[in-house]
Specification:
mainly alpha, single chain, 298 residues, globular, 12 helices
């Protein structure tokens, strides 16, 4: 529990620091990854944010070794409250009433998932590699396709300002795969001598999934974070990641659904509520108001 709460603080702080750093940089793009990396790696503030995120990754490894996937995701998503507070305080980002209601509904949905946990639930340690690849490869392809589609829409002239929902969903799919890979790494490193554990890890798909999602996720998330409000894009990304990991991760690693009908209903209702909230989040910010010259009123 302590590691999960620490991961929340590190992730929220890391995203806010990166957003602050990106605000002072020239526009970055996934089409010019070398230029993007040159800018971000030259920013001490961005490096501090990325260090916080890396430390959160380490805390996440500890969590996955001791908690079922659904429980871990429920705790991780509680960090959205801290993120919104930090965004309002440090980034001067304002959320609309509709977005605040959506955030509250997401937190309620993930609370329902946590309440659905049974005391006897086992922590899954391994998953069949073909099943992992069957789940992850289409998700990666779908995330990259959705991001490119969002980029094409954003390039249109006379478009309304985007809130970043599509970007958040796309990056959330990549981070969902990354979260499954983290879960797999934690299982490989548990219960075996170090040498044997590292050899087994090298034969698994997990380090290679982490390399792919790390490289693509870094470039995609930074470009999206620069263009959109952190207080919206990060909650959307986090929710998609948590839902993806809680549902597909639990199935892949053999963590069974609750046997009690009430707990099962809670879990399914929480998942459906979170998906419904994602579908209802506004896709566009209001267009900026253009001041009318005073002479037009005379």
């Amino acid at each position: 529990m302590a590691a999960a709460l620490l991961a929340n603080v590190l992730y929220s702080s890391g995203f806010v620091l990166e957003k602050r750093a990106l605000a002072g940089m020239p526009e970055v793009s996934v089409r010019r990854p070398a230029r993007l990396l040159r800018h971000v790696l030259g920013s001490p503030l961005w490096l501090a944010g990325s260090t916080a995120l890396a430390a959160g990754f380490g805390a996440q490894l500890v969590v996955y070794r001791t908690l079922p996937i659904a429980a871990a995701q429920g705790i991780f998503v509680s960090g959205l409250v801290l993120l919104v507070l930090l965004s309002a305080r440090l980034l001067r980002e304002e959320t609309s009433g509709r977005e605040r209601y959506a955030l509250a509904a997401i937190l309620a949905a993930l609370l329902m998932v946590v309440l659905s946990l049974e005391d006897t639930e086992q922590v899954g340690r391994s998953a069949p590699y073909p099943l992992v690849l069957l789940v992850c490869v289409p998700s990666l392809a779908g995330g990259v396709w959705l991001y490119r589609a969002a980029e094409r829409r954003a390039a249109r002239r006379h478009r309304m300002p985007t809130t970043g929902v599509e970007y958040g969903v796309a990056v959330g799919l990549l981070y969902g795969v990354s979260s499954l890979a983290v879960k797999g790494v934690s299982g490989c490193l548990t219960g075996s001598p170090p040498g044997q554990a590292l050899a087994g890890l090298a034969r698994s798909p997990y380090p290679y999934l982490l390399l792919f999602t790390g490289a693509f996720g870094l470039v995609m998330s930074q470009a999206a974070l620069q263009r959109c409000r952190a207080s919206l894009i990060v909650p959307v990304c986090t929710t998609v990641t948590c839902l993806y990991t809680a549902v597909l991760g639990s199935l892949s690693f053999g963590e069974a659904l609750p046997g009690d009908p009430v707990r099962l209903a809670l879990r399914l209702a929480g998942i459906c509520l979170a998906v419904g909230v994602l579908l209802s989040v506004p896709k566009h910010d209001p267009a900026p108001q253009v001041p009318v010259p005073a002479e037009e009123f005379t």
